[in-house]
Please model this.
Amino acid sequence: MSGVKKATSAKGRLKSLLNQTDNRICADCGAPDPKWASANIGVFICLKCCGVHRSLGTHISKVLSVALDEWSDDEIDAMIEVGGNSSANAIYEAYIPEDYSKPGPDASHDERSRFIRSKYELQEFLKPSLRITSGKSCSDSMRSSFSRKILDSFRLTPSQESTVQTTIIKSNLNPVWNEELMLSVPHNFGPVKLQVYDHDTFSADDIMGEAEIDIQPLITSAMAYGDPEMFGNMQIGKWLKSHDNALLEDSIINIIDGKVKQDVSLKLQNVESGEIYLEVEWLPLDQ
Model:
């Protein structure tokens, strides 16, 4: 985490963060004196790059003016937790090919757009791994006594989709899986899509709800801290509840006993009611 101290006002805390040396130039093109920021990615950016960030959508980059927009304490906390442009670029630009030219302040819009989309939307310059534990109960009030199973997958193109599945829990409206599902995260990862089904022996399984997990906050936090075994138990990040996601409450990312873990509670979508509780754990590639 950045060494920024909490000031008496939200604007004061944000100004302190902006005054860090690495935040005095745009995270994407190096233009001086950025006036904008991506609150969920945690970087300060210039006006030209700001336009590209807006085109990505708020689910990828929520753009705010440093001076003109109102910032919540949670948004400023999220910026501080990332640590600034250098920390964020150490994650999002970790594997830029040697023959790839990062755009400069005078780059064209097309060149700037290609780079920013590759960096944040397609996530081409990092390669993490992920473990999902279906460890708590999934409750719903549907009138059904069929068995339950859950599918977790990355929603990429159909040819790239990676899918894992739990075992079937028979005759239980509130199943507890207590299983670990392992997924390897590709360069161009998207959200993890979860689907809960009623298993039917004699016909096609019926989908009983679905939800998505945005793993970007987990990856950003884990890579910002490096080796978690070097730290004690502590909170290192947060995925904020909003109308754009299915979170029941803010999802906290912690280092616990040398491991990066995140508790996630979700309201199932496209169903009358239902909730699912998961623990997501970051695993380095060498584990």
Observations:
- The longest strand covers residues 259-267.
- DSSP finds six helices and 13 strands in the chain.
- The radius of gyration is 20 Å.
- The chain has a mean pLDDT of 77.
